[in-house]
Amino acid sequence: MKTGGERIVKNRVRICWALVALTLWVPTARLEAASQKAGIDELARQQGPASVQLAQQIWEYAELGYLEEQSSRALQRYLQSAGFDVESGVADIPTAFVATFGDAGDAGPTIGILAEFDALPGLSQDAVPVRAPREEGHPGHACGHHLFGAASASAAIALSKWIRDNHRAATIKVFGTPAEEGGSGKVYLARAGLFEGVDVVLHWHPGSANSASPSTTTANKSGRFTFKGRAAHAASAPDKGRSALDGVEAMNFMVNLMREHVPQTSRIHYVITQGGQAPNIVPERAQVYYYVRHPKASQVVELFDRVVSAAQAAALGTETEVDVEVMHGNYPVLPNKTLARLVYDNMIEVGGIKYDEQEKRFAQTIRETLIKPGQGLGSQENIAAFQFRQTMGSTDVGDVSWLVPTVGFSTATWVPGTPAHSWQAVAAGGMSIGHKGLRMATRILARTAVDLILDPGLIVNAQREFERARGADFRYAALLGDRQPPLDYRK
């Protein structure tokens, strides 16, 4: 029989051996993880030249939402050449696609990566630091979606090679999502159930800073209000006419009065898209296009209904008719801190962006064209602090984030202080400053996916957070209702 002292000595020996084993195992696991990160970094770097070439091609196409035929085909060909199976024309959208590598029936996770590629109207710009449209009045990539799509596809290809080389069980899905700018392309994919079976969705966005903070957006619902009146000679027979433009102006007046009586975090903006043909004709047709935003989807629905009521009252008061067409609707992004922290750690390891002398001169010239740019030159080398952020813009990524745990980030593809939807963003996105942000994003996407594949517990924790944040009673219903994709909304 062992004495108490002998048992204590024996237990101490066991503990010592356990500590030695743990001490040996932890560095080994860390070395393996570091080795895997080095491997995926190299694969991502190898995609760099092809990725930049693809991004430049899409930058030159500069196609508007639902009209991105060349851009979509270029992305699909790129992925097919790397062994992805591509299903095009999904969700009744000709330019939407899903590219898949691996078998979703495998034991490993299914990771989705979003890829956007639509441009914005009227913002054509050459890759120079002064205002110089390539084609006056034509579209331009003022939100950097050419970089977005190319980096996402390149990260997916790097991952496919890593999975194959390391014999890992995982499925990668690239969702080619058109018409983010006002077309809500992802909402139709979400409504069609294309994100079912996906464990995590990754995305990123071009910007003027490097940030992986957990953030949310505003919900958004938009509509075109078309008034129909009766034409007549505006001088000799004005009493015989009923002005559709009066209807638009009466509606706008009432909505502007409404601004005093809405929550401060609301945003309501409009443009008159049609106001008549000639001053001496009482306008028979006029149209105004409204966006309504708020951090809560339920509040957006309520505010939009009030805007509709103003339109109906305006039609009644001007003896015109009004037709309301809901154009798009987006949920706010549902942030996931578990995934955001993972991306942030990878962003810290990758580091920021350094300019060479030519890029510094380009950036300084751009800065001189900006109004109160805020961020200083050199900030592109830093990573923004990890903290929750409420942004006032909207994105159709929001709908995806309420169906699948989703995480996004931004890299400095533009000169610090540059606003989105500007010619300055187009210019930087068409040269090496934008390309450096693209390469950075490719690495972060690929590294994050590798982390998720190597450690399934991360996905479990993200799923748990997702379920808590969404709530047990949540049932998804698209804010845009059952309307079909507005494939001609940019024509």
Could you characterize what this model shows?
With about 500 residues, the chain is of the alpha/beta class. The chain has two domains: about 45-215 and about 335-470, Aminopeptidase (3-Layer(aba) Sandwich); about 220-330, Alpha-Beta Plaits, CATH 3.30.70. Helix content is about 45%, strand content about 15%. The protein contains 13 helices and 14 strands. The chain has a six-stranded mixed sheet. A four-stranded antiparallel sheet has the order 9-10-8-11. A hairpin with an 8-residue loop joins strand 1 (about 85-90) and strand 2. Helix 8 packs across helix 12. The longest helix has about 45 residues, at about 5-45. Mean pLDDT is about 95; it is low at about 1-15 and about 15-20.
CATH class of the largest domain: Alpha Beta
CATH architecture of the largest domain: 3-Layer(aba) Sandwich
- The CATH homologous superfamily of the largest domain corresponds to Zn peptidases
Query: Over all CA atoms, what is the radius of gyration?
Result: 26 Å
Order of helices and strands: HHHEEEHEHEEEEHEEHEHHEHEEHHH
Q: Treating each run of at least 4 consecutive H or I residues as one helix, how many helices?
A: 13
Sheet with most strands: strand arrangement: 1-2-4-3-5-13
Strand content: 15-25%
Rounded to the nearest angstrom, the distance between the terminal CA atoms is: 91 Å
The total strand number stands at 14
Main beta sheet: strand number and arrangement? 6 strands, mixed
Class by alpha and beta content: alpha/beta
Overall number of domains: 2
Coarse morphology = globular
Percentage of residues assigned to helices: 40-55%
- Overall pLDDT metric: 93
At the fold tier of CATH, the topology name of the largest domain is: Aminopeptidase
Model regions low in confidence, pLDDT < 50 over at least 5 residues: 1-15, 17-22
